[in-house]
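quick one if you have a minute, typing this from the bus. theres a chain ive been looking at and ive put its sequence and its fold in token form underneath. please have a look and point out which stretches look like helix strand or loop to you. anything you notice is useful, everything is just below.

***
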Amino acid sequence: MKRPLLILASQSEARQRLLKRMGRSFRAIPAEVDEESYKKRITDPRKLARVLARAKAEAVALKYERSVVIGSDQLVVFNGKVFGKPGSERKAIEQLRRFSGKSIQLLTAVCVLDQNSQRFEFVDKTEMRFRKLTADEIKTYVRADRPFECAGSFKFEQRGITLFESIKSNDPSAIEGLPALRLETILRFIY
């Protein structure tokens, strides 16, 4: 019997790199999901991350039946509020200024739909504490990494690692967008 196609419902280069590091052959197909409509209706950050990951997986699975689809979403939570992708240099600088010397939670949700439409979901939580950053450090960092499409305004896999003084995580790969440890356990079970 032919093995089902493994699909990553994302255009994220970081997620694609992680899945390749796991030794998986896959296709990356971005999900078309109106994230803002979910953000207006769901206020609990953990639930929002889980629902967005599920919506992405389901959107792609509808077009590619009998496939295994991985959906993922990542949110930054600071003082109970969700911070998304800044979208601009000014907003990235503003976010990092707010986070300086403080802790954030990084919630990385994953939803895997197998070829029989069974769903496997989880949310990984990482606590990250920023160093006290100067205005010049923030501007220099933002101009170097250009993290405008990254939740929290940092690219951990690049220079962003230098922004932090401590990290508490069960799976460091979650910081880059895909918790590989738990995902690999699921994929070994179903794929």
Q: What stands out?
A: The CA atoms of residues 183 and 189 lie 10 Å apart. The radius of gyration is 17 Å. The longest helix spans residues 45-63. The chain has a mean pLDDT of 95.
